[in-house]
Amino acid sequence: MSNSGTTTVVVTGIGALTPLGMDVMSTWQHLVAGAEAQAPITLFDVSGCRCQSGAQAELPDFAEVNARRLRRWSRATRLAVPAFREALATAGLLDADGRSRFPQLTLSVSTTGGAMALGERYVRGLLAGRRGPGRVFEVAHYQAHRQILDLQDQFGFRGPIAIIANACASGANAIGHGADLIRSGRAELVVTGGYEPLTELIYVGFDCLQAMSADKCRPFDTARTGLMLGEAAAFLVLESEHHARERGANILGVVAGYGHSTDVHHLTQPHPGGAPLVAAIRRALDQAQLTPGDIGYLNAHGTGTLLNDASECAAFAEVFGNSAPLRLSSTKAAIGHTLGAAGAAEAVFALQVLRTGELPPNLNVRQAEPAVAARLVTRGERGHSLQATISVNLGFGGSNTALILTRYEDYASKRPPAHRHSSEGRKPPPMAVCGVGMVVPEREPRGMASLAGREWPVRRVDLNRPELARWQNEPRLRRASGLTVFMLAAAQQAVGAAGGVNPATLGIVAAFHTGVLVPTGRFYQGVVKHGQRFASPNVFPETVFNSPTSHLAAVLGVVGPSYTVVADDTAWVSALNVAATWLANGLVENVLVVSGEELDPMALDAYAAVRWLRRGGAFVPAEGAGAVVLRRARAGDPVRIVALAEGLTHHSKVQARAAAEDLFAQFPGVRNVCRTATGTLWEHLETELHARHGFAAPLEWTDCGGAFVASAAWYTAWGVRQVRATKRDLLVPIWGHSEQFSASLLAGPSL
Predict the structure, then answer these.
(1) Which has the minimum average pLDDT: 218-222, 285-289, 455-459, 660-664?
(2) Catalytic entry in 51, 168, 208, 704
(3) Which end of the chain is more exposed for a tag (fewer CB within 10 A), N or C?
């Protein structure tokens, strides 16, 4: 079914900052020498934890950065900037002033916590009764898309942003999605990778699960006792081969294959037989047109936990047997488990094996697991004539990934010319909207007390409604927050309306802004109030961004690809873009795109801090969910999504007007538009632009309050119904509250 192998995706730039070094070369030299970065944690207090060590990174002094700008950078941004700069520099994409040579770059990046330390500081301040201007900064800068906007600002570009939060597999997913964008024709060049700082919430969470070792991280040792957390950033520049050769870039390697599957066995425990990982590896091999025997080195996920390593051993035995000349190691004993950055850093390591012939050793093994004992890399080993390597990752929520990298010279010599053409002009076909679903809040606002004790009007969803109450008896959902229930109900509506959707060929893309607020608030407030040693192991797994996505996949029986995309309201359009890419590449037959938001008292204080709740009552916080089911369009489909526009960044009202003008220019002749800026900073600008462009009287849907990405989904679902009724095209712009502007164009029946 897949046609995703028709464009060769090459790597032209790499960059990394890890606990072993501030760039790729220093990290690599220490890694292959067998160094390890374990040391006491000093970034935050860990006195109440069972474990008290990890792998912290040293940051540069940023002497070249304006002092005012540097003060506004979180630790997450400070990790990301040097690695991003190195990747652009090695790809030849920086000018003499250190700015991007291209004014627009497409980004596919990953993280699991973003600048969560700012969010932690915000919550601690609220609980301590502190007020002041610092609250606004913490609210505005802790979210993941803020760090990406910092990168755009520092290096002088804008463009589409996809932030994938699939827990520990996020980095590999971000690289795989970047390659998919190029193969589908949606981009010729993508900067991809991940970043992750150490934060108290995540550290305490893994500690309370007793998943961390109080001694050493010992991947694939029979007496292993757990993982070590670390922090890092790593980025790669991917291009179509045609684009790279046209600009004379130095090609470092090829992303030859990408496989992704969803493990619905358990939220935090992998399938004991490794079947989902087997599926991901085989899909990557199939896309790369390679056999298991072609792989010379495997960078394993290798966390050093009992269940993960056993599952991986079973999967490797199933795929590679005992005869393939495969060398294998986990690098997490050296730099720690870097979560959202792990897949990106480890892909860089797998590429470095091909480039240098050196192999990173598997450290701290005293008695190796018999299934992999003969394959574990020891200090000083070199690979001989390696043509392909593979990096695999497993994440909370069941995300399994496999990336295959090859030497460019070997890959190009085996591919016919058709595989080396430009993807320009080969745009994805329109998507048919087969079904929609919505869970909206009660019509009348009611009071809700913030964490600081002030009551504000909000619009909530009644979980006792029959269509929602029935899901709360689902065993998988017994600890899930209302957000998962909202999303599942909306998803079931959409899937039911689509009819005949096969779970075996269905993918899921979930989009969030605030995401899993309720469990996150419960977990961290418990840590602050009662101490780290009393943190709840039952609540922590539900704080992970992709936990609702995992629950949806388990209930719906989806074992194929599933992504969790995070940002502001425009994450909805990013999710639609992912769906378009999957359908264009033939990875699935249908895609469920679903979003949801839930309210929590600590969020109300955040909205008040940025004055959304003080602007004449126009903004009323809300919760709920929305969903659509999509497939490739066919003649006669009543509603299609025929175009997407995203990545229009702005930092002022003047720039916002220019961004909107740029967006509207992409849709000449469209006269029907949905009003979506109601109650936001952009409402007056939207009215002005509608009049200037001669749009028909804006179509308005009964407002359900401000629910960010859920609101964006509601506008699309409502727009679908309007197009069905009127047979007229409809533009649905999405004004992101944090300096992004995106849109989708809905069209009536095709000719």
Answers:
(1) 660-664
(2) 168
(3) C
326-355: pLDDT as tens digits:
999 999 999 999 999 999 999 999 999 999
Which structural domain range is residue 627 located in? 431-747
Residue 4 resides in a domain: no
The mean pLDDT of 474-487, rounded to a whole number, is: 88
Q: Give me the amino acid identity at 719.
A: G
Domain harbouring 368, CATH code: 3.40.47.10
In terms of domains, do 438 and 410 share one?
no
Examine the residue annotation and report whether 674 is marked as an active-site residue of this protein. no
Number of domains in the chain: 2
Pairing of strands 106-110, 189-196: parallel
Give yes or no: residues 458 and 577 share one domain: yes
Q: Which of 337, 513, 551, 737 is catalytic?
A: 337
How confident is the model at residue 708, as a pLDDT?
92
Beta strand 399-406 pairing with 388-395: antiparallel
The strand pair at 232-240 and 189-196 is best described as: antiparallel
In contact, 479 and 538? CB cutoff 8 Å: yes
Quote the Cα angle for 313-562-255, to 5°: 65
Mean pLDDT of 588-610: 93
Provide the percentage of residues in the chain whose pLDDT is more than 70: 94
Q: Which of 536, 586, 271 is closest to 398 using CA atoms? A: 271
750 pLDDT band, cuts 50/70/90, is low
Distance CA(529)–CA(462), nearest Å, equals 29
The reply to whether 136 and 210 lie within a common domain is yes
Q: Report the first-to-last Cα separation within the chain, whole angstroms.
A: 26
Q: What is the pLDDT of residues 77-130, one digit of tens each?
A: 999 999 999 999 999 999 999 999 999 999 999 999 999 999 999 999 999 988
615 pLDDT tier (thresholds 50, 70, 90): low
CB 247 within 8 A of CB 363: no
Q: Is 301 one of the annotated active-site residues of the chain?
A: yes
168 is catalytic: yes
State the pTM of this model: 0.96
Tens digit of pLDDT for each residue in 512-526? 998 999 999 999 999
User: Is 592 in contact with 629 (CB distance < 8 Å)?
Assistant: yes
Q: Answer whether residue 470 is part of any domain.
A: yes
Residue 669: predicted pLDDT: 83
pLDDT tens for 389-418 read: 999 999 887 899 999 999 998 877 776 544
Phi, psi angle pair for 592, to nearest 5°: -95, 115
Note whether 398 and 439 are same-domain residues: no
Q: Which residues pair with 593 in a beta bridge?
A: 509, 628
The single residue of 260, 301, 513, 650 carrying the catalytic annotation is 301
Residue 209 resides in a domain: yes
Q: Sign of dihedral through CA atoms 299, 350, 100, 62? A: positive
Query: Is 144 among the domain residues?
Result: yes
Average pLDDT, the chain: 91
Give the residue from 354, 388, 417 where a domain finishes: 417
Domain closes at, from 417, 439, 474: 417
Strand residue runs (E) in 407-542: 431-439, 446-449, 455-458, 506-512
Segment (H or E) for 318: helix 306-320
Query: Alpha-carbon distance 428 to 437, whole Å?
Result: 25
CB atoms within 10 A of CB 644: 20
Give yes or no: residues 405 and 552 share one domain.
Answer: no
Q: Specify whether 329 is located in the same domain as 457.
A: no
Cα 300 from Cα 394, distance rounded (Å): 9
Tell me which H or E stretch contains 29. Answer: helix 24-32
Q: What is the average pLDDT across 353-371?
A: 97
Other C-beta atoms closer than 10 Å to the C-beta of 291 total 10
Find where tokens 């109080």 sit. 214
Query: Domain check: are 304 and 437 in the same one?
Result: no
- Say how far apart CA 547 and CA 267 lie, in whole Å: 7
